[in-house]
Amino acid sequence: MNVSVLSALVSIGVVVVFIVVVATSRRLALPAALSPVVVTAAAIGILLVANRIPIERLQELSHPLSLFLGPAIVALGVAVHDNRRLLTAAARPLAVAITVGSASGVGSAILLARALGLGPLLLAATATRTISTPFAILMQTRVGGPVSLAAGIAVATGAIGAIMLPSLLKMLGVVDRRAIGTAVGVAAHLVGADAVGRRNAVAGAFAGAALVGTGVVVSLIVPPLWPWLIG
Amino acid sequence: MRRTAEFIASLALLAGLNTAGYALAAVLTLPVPGPIIGLTAYILLLSLGLFPGSRVAARWLAGLLGALIVPPLVGVVAFAPVLAAGGWRLAFALIAGTLITGVVTATTFRAIANSV
Q1: I need a surface site. Which of A35, A49, A221, B43 has the fewest CB within 10 A?
Q2: Residue A145 contacts B, CB cutoff 8 Å
Q3: What is the Cα–Cα distance from A209 to A214, expressed in whole angstroms?
């Protein structure tokens, strides 16, 4: 088969598997931490191993998908615009919390990685873990970091935050849905936003804006500081 | 038919903003990734009331973001030895860092919201 035809088929196949997983996990009401991205990646991973296909081959063939990553990130703007009334009413606390939260997200990742002696690869990969995985992939590609490792760590961060953060905030007496949403959006991006959004629309709106805002803030601040942060 | 045309034109708009973002970053030698500039421009355009019809296509494309990150995510398998070497220290760093970030963000939000 022609390589470009095969490449198109593989790319469409990944999208179709993802759409099926999203639909199924909604019907089965699976916990948000078991995100469709993880399930899709695991299913495709098992398929590759079972057929002895190297992962590099999948990445080569699915290259067309990476061309849509940029436009899809641009499209995220609609999540901010859809909730503009709610968001503009709390613009100041939202903007300050996103900025301070982003800085603490990158700062805590780097300090913990250094203190625990995690080594240069994990240090570089954890530096982008507080931004949503597509943003992390984009930025690691830009600075020449370990893209796949950073993607895995970003997804793990989202799952950890989705499971643990809402109950911790509740224990600490945070009841403001806007504060909870913003915190989960900054610290646990897409998986966390999905988890709180299912329970409360206001929290979901703030989480959506926070994950976009964090992606922008970190992408503005981190690349110029990159050699200094991981050096 | 008109809807299909609008959908395709909207995808072209999003792709155009992405490319324009890359071009601007290259011309001005900005360290910012191109799509971030495109994203900011798109929010600005929508808030000015421009291209309201593009939102349907944008929601659809944003919903497929998960599928686009699957191939790089599958690649994490190649890093299994690095992850295993990180072990409990990596797990601790991820959990502690995520919780610190969340608590700092929520506390900041509350402090500013209550001070107004």
Answers
A1: A49
A2: no
A3: 8
